[in-house]
Amino acid sequence: MLTLELALAGLGIGSIAALAGLGLLVTYRLTGVFNLAFGAIAMAAAYLLWQAVRVWHWPLALAAVVDVLVICPIFGVLLERFVFRPLQRRAAAPAEKLVASLGVFVVLLGGAVLVWGAQARLDAPSLVPYRQLPLPGGVQLPLSTVVDLAVIIVVGIGLALGQRTRLGLRVRAVVEQRELAELQGLDANRVAALGWAIGSMLAGVAGVLMAPTLRLQPYGLTLVMLETMAVVVVAQLTSPVRAIAAGLMVGVIQAELARVHLGGYSGALFDALTANLFVVALLVALLIVRRLNETGGDDAGTTARLTTRGELASARGWWLVPALTLAAPLMFNAQDRRVALAVPALAIVLVSIVVVSGYSGQISLGQAGFAGLGALIAARLAAGTMPGFGRIPGVAVLVMVPLLMVPIGLLLGWPAIRRRGLFLALTTFAFSVAVSRFVFDQPSVTSGLTVHPPDAFGSDNNFYVLELLCLAAAFLVVRNLHNGRVGRALIAVRDDESGALACGVDVRRLKLLVFAASAALAALGGALLAMGSRAFDTGAFDPTRGLIWFAAVVVFGIDSAPGAVIGAGVLVALDAGLPQGSSILVIGLCALLLGRMPGGLLHSMHRLFDHTVRRIAPGIVPDVRQRPTRAVQLTPAGRAMVGQLRRRAAGGQGVTP
Q1: Under CATH, which number does the domain 4-118+142-288 receive?
Q2: Burial of 77 (0-12, 13-18, 19+ CB in 10 A)
C-alpha cells in the first residue's frame, strides 16, 4: 500500500528527473539537436554558482542571476555561432550535430575536472531555503520540491503555448526545414541562436536547482542528468505532459520501493534496481517505444557522410604515424612503458567503434560496457570463478573472451535492426549504463578481482608484444569487414539503408554481424586494459568513458582504423603527461571543430597536405577528382535493367519508376 510520506519524497526525486528531462526536450524542440551536453551545461552552471558564492563570496541572488540569465544564454549563443552554424551551412547530418554536442559535453567535463577537480563537493549553494511546508494529515513537503514542480509547470505550459505563437512557428520552421524557412525571409541564424540561448538557460536552471540535492561532482552530476533521458524517450521527443508524468511517476515508485527489504543476493540486486530505477525505465522505454519523433525525417540520425571515405587510404605512408605510435613505447623506460601498455588495448576498443559506426553507420555509445564485460570475464576465467567454466590458463583467456562476448553483441544488435541514429545511440548508451550499475558497481561481482597477464608474457615488454599481436588480429578482422563483398554491403547500408535493402542486401544479418564483431573486439581490448593495469577498475569502464572514446574516434576519422590507433596514443599520452582532464579537454575542443573538419582531423590534414603540395609542386600529387573510377560489377538482372533503360532512352520513351 502506498505511503503518503514516501510518495511526497518521491515527488522530490521525480521533480528533479522531470526538470532535467523537460529541459532536454525543450532544447531539442527549439534547436533540432539532441543535446548530449545538456547535463554538462547544467553541471558547469552549478560549479560557476559554487565558485561565485563559496570562493568569490558574491551574494547568492546576484550570482544566480548572472549565472542563469547572463552566462548560460551567452554560452548558448556562442555554441550556435561557432559550433552548430558551420554544420548547418554544409547541411551536415543530424548525427554530426549529435557528435558536436558530444564535443561540448567532453569540453565542459574536461574543463570542470581540470579547474575544480574530480572530487565531490557537498556545499553547493541552495537557491531555496531548507523549509518544510505542512500539509493536511500531518505530513510535510520540502519547499525545494514545490519550487521544482512550479518550474516544471511553467516550462511545460510555456512549451505547449509557445508552439502556437508566431515565434514558435518560426522556430519550428527553422528546425524542420531551415532552407525553406530562409526562402520565406526568416533570419534562421537569429532564430537558432534564440533557441540555443533558451535551451542553455534551462540547463542552468536545472543545474543550480539540482546541485544541492545531488553531489556536486563532474562525472556524477552529468551522468545523473543523462540517466533521466527515460523521461524524454517516454515523451517520444514531443509531449511535455508525458515527460512530466513519467518523471514524477518513476520518482514516486522509486521512493515507495525503498521500504521493501530483502536479504541475500536477491536483496542486493533489488536494492540496485531501486537505486537505479531511472536506468531500468530508460531500457524499458527504449524497448517498448517503437519510434522517436525526430526532426528531419525517419533517417535523421544516419552517420552517412560523416567522412569522406578512402581519402586517407590513398595517401602514401599513411601507416607511418600509427606505426611510430605503437613502436615508440618499446624504447621507453620501465615506468613509461607501464603507462604505454594501455595504448594497443585502447586502440582495439576504438577500432571496435570504427567497425560499428564508421563502416555500418550505426551510432553506438555502449562500447565501454562491452570493454568492461570483457575485462570482468577475463578476470573470472583466469581465476576459475566463471560459472560453467573451469580455470582457463594463459593466452586461452584472450581467445575465450571475444567468443563469449559474441552472443551479447548479437543480443544488443537485435534492437539495431529497426533502430538508427539517435534511437540506437540512446539504446546502446542505456546498455552501457545498465551494465555499469548492475554489474560493475556490485561488490559481490567485482570485489577481490585481480587480473594478471599470461605467465609467458609477464614482463611489460613481452605483454606489449602480445598486445601488438592482438591488435594485428583486430586489424585483420577489420580488413575482412572493410574489403570485398561485405565491405561494399556495409558502405551501401551506411549511405542508404533503404536502397541497400531494395538491392537485395541482407541488412538484418549484416547489422548483427557488425555488432557481434564490434562487441568481440571491445571485449578483447577491455581484457587487455585490465591485464595491463593488473586490476579490474570499474572507473575505467564508466559510461562517460564510452562517450569520450566515441568522440575521439570521430575526431580522428570514424572510418579510419589507423586514426583509432593515433587517438588511443593521444588519450594515453595526454593523461600521463598533463593534469587530469587534459585529454578530455583536447578531444572535446577538436570535436567542436567538426563543422570545419569534415571527416575528422586526419582526413582534413591529408586534404590540407595534398592542397599544399599541389600548389608548391603541381603534378607530384595526383588530383583525386581526376582519378578514373572502377566499373561497378552488376548482376545479370542489373545488366538487363541497364539495357532496358538504354533502349528506352534511345527510343525517346519516358522511364517509369
Answers
A1: 1.10.3470
A2: middle
